[in-house]
Design brief:
single chain, about 110 residues, mainly beta, 4-stranded antiparallel β-sheet, 3-stranded antiparallel β-sheet, 10 strands
Length: about 110
Amino acid sequence: ATCINFDSLIKTNLCGAISAIHDEVLNIGLNIFPNPANSILNIEALSDNVRNTGIEVYDLSGRVLLTEQVDINNGVTEIELPVGEMQNGLYLLKIGDNSRYIFRRFQVLH
């Protein structure tokens, strides 16, 4: 069995041994702010190539609340996600494709 540490994005086994680092596989730098967010969550994606990428937002029960396709350009791409209609709480942001992805945790606080 495995678990995912969403803060460091290091996949570990139950003994804590590192088995994969997802950031290096996807090769995208990701910054989200403000955290906590009120109405807009800003995403800065830094990439060395152009790609079409999926963005998904999950609540902590695993329900998909938002799905978008975005173009990530060479350099910094800025994306604004509307979170004003979401309830206060913790959420997971997933960015990537079906086989390579990064998770980030964020909070909505009105």
